[in-house]
Design a protein that fits this description.
Blueprint: H1 11-20, E1 25-28, H2 37-49, E2 55-60, H3 62-67, H4 72-78, E3 80-88, H5 92-97, H6 104-116, E4 120-127, H7 133-145, E5 151-155, H8 163-168, H9 194-217
Parallel strand pairs: 1-2, 2-3, 3-4, 4-5
């Protein structure tokens, strides 16, 4: 993208745009927003200085959150309430498969740091075609043990142009553009039938989404210290 050249907008220009948006909640969809800590600190300080009263949601890698816990109070004071974190998996083998360069321990630390600072962790998980019945159970157990409320599940999809596509292109099934949405199987599951795999993916939603709905209705979805349904 962008011919391989990394560019950044001037912070003052970003702040001007944020101020001009007539909405109290802003989603920063830049995947690399938290790459440069100094830039993040400057952004937060200017948000506070200009008294911009909005709530922010942004993406972050787990390792940044695990290694920079001391910056999270500043993020909260600047209005950050949601951080979307690509945890992807809950065991190191799958994380290595995804080339995440993180670990289960890093993921756990990242989630804990967010919860301790009253920032919601929106955990993004990728379900591998290599998953067993026990792997599905371990994923749900990780969510419960780490007090994660907000979750998103996607099915591993090797997109064209990636190393994963080159690795799995001979094993792809029903690889059509309308199915490349993270909710369809494009690689046959290795340890169960496609039917049982999809059933278990749906069951993950059954186990987690009703609680999200209840907490939203009772307006406690942003209380990171609460673990119950209400």
């Amino acid at each position: 993208m962008n011919s391989g050249v990394y560019t950044e907008r001037d912070i003052s220009d970003v702040l001007d745009e944020i101020e001009s948006i007539e909405h109290s909640r802003i989603w920063l969809i830049d995947d690399t927003f938290f790459i440069d800590r100094k830039r993040v600190e400057f952004f937060c300080e200017k948000i506070i200085e200009r008294k911009i009263d909005k709530h922010f949601m942004a993406y972050s890698r787990a390792d940044f959150l695990a290694e920079n816990a001391d910056i999270l109070p500043l993020l909260y004071n600047a209005g950050f309430r949601d951080i979307l974190v690509g945890l992807e998996a809950v065991n190191d083998d799958f994380l290595d498969d995804y080339n995440k360069r993180t670990s289960k321990s890093i993921n756990e630390t990242a989630v804990k740091n967010l919860i301790d600072n009253n920032i919601v962790c929106n955990a993004l998980f990728v379900v591998s075609h290599k998953s067993s019945k026990e792997d599905f159970k371990a994923l749900h157990r990780f969510i419960k043990q780490n007090r994660i409320l907000w979750v998103v599940f996607g099915i591993f999809t090797p997109y064209k142009g990636t190393d994963a596509y080159n690795e799995y292109k001979e094993r792809l099934i029903n690889f059509k553009s309308k199915r490349l949405d993270g909710i369809h199987i494009t690689i046959k599951p290795e340890k169960m039938s496609s039917f049982m795999f999809m059933l278990r993916v749906y069951w993950l939603h059954v186990l987690t989404y009703p609680k999200i709905i209840f907490r939203t209705i009772f307006k406690t979805a942003y209380d990171t210290k609460r673990i119950g349904w209400f």
